[in-house]
Input
Amino acid sequence: MRSWIHLAVATAPLAISAACASSEDQAAPAPEPPTSTVLDADAPDASAPVSDGDVPDTSLPRCSASGWCVTPFPDEDLDFRDIWPFEDRAFAIAESRTQGVKVLEWQKSTDAWQYIDDASQNVVGVETFAGRIYAPNEDEVYFTVSPSFVYRGKRPNASESAWSWTRHVLPDNVLGHLPPDDHGRPYYVTTGMTQVTLGVWGVGVDDVYAYYSNAIFRRDPLHGTWSSVYLANDAEPNEHIFFTAAAGAGPDDIWFSGARDRSRYACPLLVRKTADAWIRVADGIVTDSCGVRAGTVRIGEGFAGWLTELQAISPTEYIGLQDAMNPWNLDHVSLMKVRVEDGGYSVDHSAVPIKNASSIAPQVASSVWRVNGDTWFTSLGLVLRGTEDGAFAVSTISRDGAPVGAPLHRIRGTSNQNLWAIGARYAYHKTTP
Output
């Protein structure tokens, strides 16, 4: 197994302390890990329980020693789930026990978040959950919300705050053993967590895609309708196929990651759209491990798991997160890299050891983002930074040395001087190298 990036911990002691149906339109109202472990510099004792209700203390300094600064938002119980940043603005989707699903905008001029949605996403059913968010520009935003809605927001220009919203229903293309609500947020037994499989992503204004369960949809830029363009309908008995993320190098080269899941076992899935065809790049035969499926490459060995994140780092290279490969050894995540080569594809892996703020929660990364040569990871109360020279260290988010007992769900940015790490009750912004 080739290793493309060596994320290592220095051998000297570290100064780290453990302190295919058509869419329905509906207008809306307004590998083996290293033996060393890295403990978050601001993580509590691993045996201590961690609550997702950690409330930021406004009496503390605004920024941590590593330059992670808290940003204010309207309600303290917001759980930020996804973010799409620009240089001077950012859009995010969040969940709240009191407000439901909310969509927000951050502006550099105010350094604060404000709501921009019309609240209609919270009147379409019970147990509403947030999907993903995508913005082709500063005046147009897409987001997904349960059970299977994709929203589009538009405003005349950034100086005006009046957004108009429309929504569409993505049809359920699965006839199987799971309830429809589980198609967009299935429970993954191995990690003991739900996985959102309802998202949106695009390349500019005219090439916007959504995914829901085992189907991929494209928006018609002329009529504003959504139609199914790819359906993974070859699941075997007691299996389900899900898509989890998307990335691309251009309109004619877009990739979707996911999994072929069967109870405790799953195999990574990778699908590529080119100008001429849809290609099943990676897939597997699910038993108690992942066998090689004819015509595809194999990602991971043994208990291969889900491919949950995806990012294009060059026109021919993509990275992604692959969860723990052994359901009884949840102490690492695999960082996957796939390359497009003459006549095929190659896949490399690097094991990322995670020691987060709780011994109860799975020791897995929730998100990855590569920018300016650095590879960033988030987990429960933890941000890790891996550099091209092999260094691997905690980027502390604590503002006083005390634990931050909150899960972080996404890390994303335009550069190391404009980087966001978001999660339960926190939206950290980093503007230093």
